């Protein structure tokens, strides 16, 4: 055949340590039909400060692969909520081969067509809280690339017709495909008239959706005569691939014929009208074309040189035990993103007769519905059982209903089909099933009622069970409970939802309490963070006593909003919010920085130099508000105004020192008992905040931060300035044509009498 190679790539993204599914990076790919091999090239590299991160530590990267929907992963081995089905996925761990770069390869032979999802993350870390911009962090970037090789012009088999084929000596296999429509209960593939070698040395392999593999359903034609391979309960509305493979070491040309028969399980009264066009009757994909479909009873396509009509008819009446029952559709009602209800016509109470199953179909849209949770709930009306020991079994299967003729069967799986089993009876009248990230397409629910006897389950007689059926799509499981938050996430144009847990709770639905915080611990942490702000009361008293009323108002503002911000910021249930969270956070950050600003400006004692010192206070408030609006967690946006205030204080102190030729402040007691202890306490607080604080010790380290910052303000706030006793107020003298004005302000009690400000007013 002819191969075509396609190439796909995605933009590199920064990986994060795993905490929940909300912290992973998700990549979405689409594999076309008839793909024989898919190769993922997984590129990972380090960056630090815009350059290659050669000094960054090696951290393993885990990548998950799944077809049809995102992977449901559990790297922390937490517990899933009850009644939750966990689908499987492939996992791959990348190790580093170079100091700053590594590459991994993941091959999939004959992958399933459609959507494929890759999820990648770093291992869980210790949860250190780092200050943004303090140092260059190591970044681990991940970029997947996909290369697919697909076959074109694969020969199509028409049901009921024979295709002749000759396999040359240099060819090892021939590949075909046939489309299986809805209401097909059996696919029979047969190899006829094998000539050219003794014993027909051929392998017959069949697989749904993709070309067959070595472990696909196979039959050795040399050992079976006739060479027939039957598949019961095939997937509806999908391509089936047939591979005829020659045994190794067989010389010469082998000729044979291939035919496919489809068994229609629908009722005769529901047979397809013969006047419909072939593609409509068979419900073929539009890409197949009108000449490709052939329904039972339709006119055949034009005869090719290698095609002949099979002598046996396939549109025959079926016995009652082999018929499939009609499928009842559901009404889709979209309420919101991943909030979809599926209503049953004449429901939600459905009747399950004793002689036949009740089958329903739930259609999930491609891509749009795979990022949520499919919920199914069965509730038995016990009063409808009439005292009989009846059990209603429900089988949920993907892409084909499981309607076995064996009434005593209570399984929802076959050799090639897997499903989910639900059961309700008089003792347990409620059953639930949750499937996170379900595969899209058609899901079929088959309900059957059986009576329990001493010899197992047997068909019931004259008992029609009534079941309440509820099916819906939700973003998260139980909205993540009270200890989690359901987040709607996006990767490019794909939306999905995931829980982000808090207060030590873990799991897919935040139901694993192995590491959960107790109520007493939550209350203690909240009280520590809130009551530690009481340490601002002494600085407020000192400021009021020293007539620093503006500074005292800022400290009260900081104490108030810091207390209620931390009361609202708690992860558990001990939470109290008086305002919107964003408003409380802004006011808390603004009050903290304004406390530093007004304290440093007060230490500078600028009143003798700048007559309107309130200008600096107003300037600081505006600058800090702008910086917080730009980035509340950025280091330099917050450190810049603080350094600016320290620079003003340093200039003022240096000017006084030069003019007075004496160190300022002049007394050693001020340095030894106030400035040095205050500076050391403030430095210790900054070090704790920047380098020691983690998620585990946040509640008491941050409380210590509150105590230290408030204590440092009490030490650093300057004393009240006293009026000088050496000079009294000078009399105001007026003369003809001029007025002499003397500045009566003092500078720390020292004013040079020779320095005076004179304003001259000339008169005629």
UniProtKB/TrEMBL annotation:
<feature type="transmembrane region" description="Helical">
    <location>
        <begin position="698"/>
        <end position="717"/>
    </location>
</feature>
<dbReference type="GO" id="GO:0005886">
    <property type="term" value="C:plasma membrane"/>
</dbReference>
<feature type="transmembrane region" description="Helical">
    <location>
        <begin position="548"/>
        <end position="567"/>
    </location>
</feature>
<comment type="similarity">
    <text>Belongs to the TMEM8 family.</text>
</comment>
<feature type="domain" description="EGF-like">
    <location>
        <begin position="499"/>
        <end position="510"/>
    </location>
</feature>
<feature type="transmembrane region" description="Helical">
    <location>
        <begin position="671"/>
        <end position="692"/>
    </location>
</feature>
<dbReference type="Pfam" id="PF12036">
    <property type="entry name" value="DUF3522"/>
</dbReference>
<feature type="transmembrane region" description="Helical">
    <location>
        <begin position="516"/>
        <end position="536"/>
    </location>
</feature>
<keyword id="KW-1003">Cell membrane</keyword>
<feature type="transmembrane region" description="Helical">
    <location>
        <begin position="573"/>
        <end position="597"/>
    </location>
</feature>
<feature type="transmembrane region" description="Helical">
    <location>
        <begin position="609"/>
        <end position="628"/>
    </location>
</feature>
<keyword id="KW-1133">Transmembrane helix</keyword>
<feature type="transmembrane region" description="Helical">
    <location>
        <begin position="634"/>
        <end position="655"/>
    </location>
</feature>
<dbReference type="InterPro" id="IPR000742">
    <property type="entry name" value="EGF"/>
</dbReference>
<dbReference type="InterPro" id="IPR021910">
    <property type="entry name" value="NGX6/PGAP6/MYMK"/>
</dbReference>
<keyword id="KW-0812">Transmembrane</keyword>
<protein>
    <submittedName>
        <fullName>TMM8B protein</fullName>
    </submittedName>
</protein>
<keyword id="KW-0472">Membrane</keyword>
